[in-house]
Specification:
Elements (H helix, E strand, L loop, with lengths): L2 H11 L2 H24 L11 E7 L2 E6 L5 E2 L2 H5 L6 H14 L4 H8 L3 H16 L3
Antiparallel strand pairs: 1-2, 2-3
Helix pairs in contact: 4-6, 5-6
The chain binds zinc ion.
């Protein structure tokens, strides 16, 4: 029996509530995967679709464009290529996106980073958003 048929058989044994929950989980999982694939469909520098895998950086897959020779990774990587304080950066970005134009000093204090770091991160977020269209 094919594995998909086995899964369907098992699925039929579930209660309706469990079936709905499972379908929701699986849909979410497939959707997340599609986002990852979408991110590396073409080179962000020249839009070429001719690229191949080019090692890993910080545990994430990188790619080398065969046309313009630039390297790139997924969108989430390109926003912060050299940031070691990754969780603080994510927190910083959330505060920025929730509150909008609060002062850099108050954001730095809230996250526990220096003002120059806050300034640099803010520029990264803004420039990435512009390049995101
Ligand atoms: Zn390219």
């Amino acid at each position: 029996m094919a594995i998909t048929d086995q899964i369907k058989d098992l699925f039929d044994q579930l209660e309706v509530v469990q079936q709905y929950k499972l379908l929701k989980d699986l849909t979410e999982r497939v959707r997340n995967r599609n986002v990852e694939i979408e991110d590396v469909r073409y080179c962000p520098h020249c839009k070429s679709e001719r690229f191949h895998k080019h090692g890993k950086s910080l545990g994430k897959q990188r790619f080398l464009c065969m046309d313009c020779k630039h390297t790139f990774a997924t969108k989430t990587d390109s926003i912060n290529p050299n940031i070691r304080k990754k969780s603080q950066f994510e927190k910083f970005r959330r505060v920025w996106e929730d509150k909008g134009c609060v002062s850099i000093a108050s954001m730095a204090k809230k996250i526990g980073i220096s003002i120059p770091t806050a300034h640099r991160w803010l520029h990264m977020i803004i420039s990435n958003k512009k390049g995101d269209n």
